[in-house]
Write a structure and sequence with these properties.
By secondary structure, the chain is an alpha+beta fold. It is built from 11 helices and 8 strands.
């Protein structure tokens, strides 16, 4: 049974997987470039993703782009849940409706409104197929997951359960404000003022709640936006860096290489649909 590893490097890939995870409150956010799909047979999971809370309940499928900082902050029940990680380029090639792709890459958590009684057996089969190391079964699982995502995207009423900002805790409000304004020049003073907190208290509260600094959280969102733009547009690397909130191309390249292990151009080449 897997559990979140706090020592894993940022953007370390999971690859194509279907595994059972033990629900735990995560001490910090995780980020990886795959699309993540969660399925719960019982209980619930509440994520903080992109500054908003989304809850996936028993019988539901939840889908999100895991390059966006995501962190389980609450859970109900101890039963394991299924996690599928699908490489971004496979998701982009799957033929899913463009609106669903855009919503996903813009940081929305998509949650099924219609439950499928076959899901429990399907996720168990995919887990077994991928664990077998049999290429034929792995290909079968890949095609079946793609088909399930196409059916998921066909449900036009899918959506998240994000709470309004005024209903969130002070820490969540700070995260939400950053998620909405990371494109802009931000200071800890301006962020704290928006939530009616003293800057020193805001910085301490944020680190205590989410395990990282406000500055690091801003950078995470800027990197996620840069990845999205690199994959979905033909804008120059300079335009991508500025549109994502970075103040200079050199700083953008430095941060991107450190976090992702490659240049922005290489990331685009690896993930774009050809």
């Amino acid at each position: 049974m897997k559990q979140f590893d706090t020592t894993r490097p940022e953007f370390a890939p999971y690859g194509f997987t279907c595994e059972r995870w033990t629900p735990v409150a995560m001490p910090r956010a995780d980020r990886h470039s795959e699309i993540e799909v969660n399925f719960l047979a019982s209980g619930s999971l509440t994520y903080l993703v992109g500054g908003h809370r989304d809850t996936i309940h028993a019988g539901q499928m939840g889908l999100f782009w895991a390059a966006v900082p995501h962190q389980i902050v609450e859970f109900d029940g101890d039963d394991p849940y299924f996690v599928v990680t699908l490489p971004l380029n496979e998701f982009m090639r799957s033929g899913i409706d463009a609106d669903i792709v855009n919503r996903t890459l813009q940081g929305e958590v998509l949650i099924s409104s219609v439950q499928d009684e076959r899901d429990s057996a399907s996720f168990q089969r995919w887990e077994s197929d991928l664990a077998s190391q049999d290429p034929a079964l792995a290909r079968a699982a890949q095609l079946e997951i793609q088909a399930r995502l196409l059916r998921f995207a066909h449900d036009k009423s899918i959506g998240g359960t994000g709470e309004p900002m005024e209903d969130l805790s002070s820490a969540d409000q700070l995260a939400c404000y950053i998620a909405r304004h990371f494109h802009q020049t931000l200071t800890s003073e301006a962020i704290a003022k928006a939530v009616d907190l003293h800057p020193n208290y805001a910085m301490t509260l944020f680190r205590k709640t989410f395990g990282i600094s406000i500055t690091s959280f801003i950078t995470q969102h800027r990197l996620s936006e840069a990845q999205r733009l690199l994959v979905t547009t033909n804008r120059s690397v300079l335009d991508v860096s500025l549109a994502s909130g970075f103040q200079s191309l050199s700083r953008f390249n430095e941060v991107f290489r450190k976090a992702c292990g490659c240049s922005p151009r290489k990331f685009r080449a690896n993930h774009r649909v050809t």
